[in-house]
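Title: Comparing notes on inverse folding

I've been comparing how different people in this forum approach sequence design from structure. To keep things fair, I'm posting one structure and asking everyone to reply with a full sequence. Here's the target:
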């Protein structure tokens, strides 16, 4: 090919375009990885905050000598029981209503009594359940040992993972 004075040949131009394109593809792949990592971090952080809010609510009930109300938290929707304002909260309903919940949203399943998150980005998400990607938590009331002739009283509350999942397997990326 003939080189113009001070210019580039077509071959040099094509090599530059291919190199820039390859670097852009690698960059976009990394951006998707970090977006998905940020979604996982935000989901896990919010679940921890809900767990702490439940513990604080339990402590408030204990200080007010309303220990019997602690047991009511087990069947309650934590979003409503704690009067939380969650971004991306799609409400509460039956398991059949989960299909209409958009990705990246929280939902309380009244049938299973689980607070569910539906990830929006799932290329690195692994869960044993088939079907739609989801992570679920359940409010668990810890009860003290039963006294002779009495029922075990609610003692504490925790938010427990109900569905195991793996996001970003160690063997990937």
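Reply #1:
Here's my take.
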């Amino acid at each position: 090919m003939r080189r113009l004075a001070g210019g580039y040949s077509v071959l040099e131009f094509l090599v530059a375009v291919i190199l820039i394109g390859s670097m852009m593809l690698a960059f976009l792949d990394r951006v998707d990885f970090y977006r998905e990592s940020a979604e996982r971090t935000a989901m896990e952080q919010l679940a921890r905050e809900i767990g702490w809010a439940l513990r604080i609510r339990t402590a408030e009930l204990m200080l007010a000598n309303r220990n019997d109300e602690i047991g009511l938290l087990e069947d309650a929707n934590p979003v409503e029981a704690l009067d939380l304002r969650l971004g991306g909260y799609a409400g509460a309903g039956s398991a059949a209503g989960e299909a209409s919940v958009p990705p990246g949203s929280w939902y309380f399943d009244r049938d299973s009594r689980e607070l569910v998150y539906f990830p929006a980005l799932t290329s690195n998400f692994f869960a044993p359940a088939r079907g739609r990607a989801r992570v679920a938590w359940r409010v668990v009331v810890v009860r003290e040992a039963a006294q002779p002739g009495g029922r075990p009283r609610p003692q504490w509350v925790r938010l427990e993972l109900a569905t195991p999942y793996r996001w970003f397997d160690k063997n990937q990326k």
